[in-house]
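Input (structure):
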């Protein structure tokens, strides 16, 4: 089985790919590309990258299976819920886990990982 990788990060820090897919499953994990924004701006920035990387791997948010969210503080939970609901849509809501985290960078307000089906790969 081949592995597709996309979203290479090769600057300071660990060398990573933000997205990878194998068989009929794709996964994306990242913090906001612009960490200077508000919580809502960081969240929307992550959602935009997730949409882009899933598309590159033959999937989209309608095929989400599961999502894991790390919040820098649980005080962001009430703000996160409507942002999430607007992005994911009621018809395609996946399983969701939300926990509090200590980020490696203090300017990261959240990190999101999603897993999605790749219907075209089946």
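Output (sequence):
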């Amino acid at each position: 089985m081949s592995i597709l990788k996309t979203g290479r990060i090769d600057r300071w820090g660990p060398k990573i790919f933000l997205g990878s897919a194998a068989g009929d499953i794709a996964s994306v994990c990242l913090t906001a590309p612009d960490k200077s924004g508000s919580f809502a701006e960081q969240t929307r920035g992550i959602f935009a990258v997730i949409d882009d990387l899933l598309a590159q791997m033959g999937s989209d948010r309608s095929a989400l299976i599961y999502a894991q969210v790390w919040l820098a503080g649980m005080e962001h939970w009430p703000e996160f819920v409507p942002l999430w609901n607007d992005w994911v849509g009621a018809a395609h809501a996946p399983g969701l886990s939300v926990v509090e985290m200590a980020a490696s960078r203090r300017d990261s307000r959240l990190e999101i990982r999603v897993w999605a089906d790749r219907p075209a790969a089946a």
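Notes: Residues 39-56 form the longest helix (18 residues). Helices lie at 39-56, 77-88.
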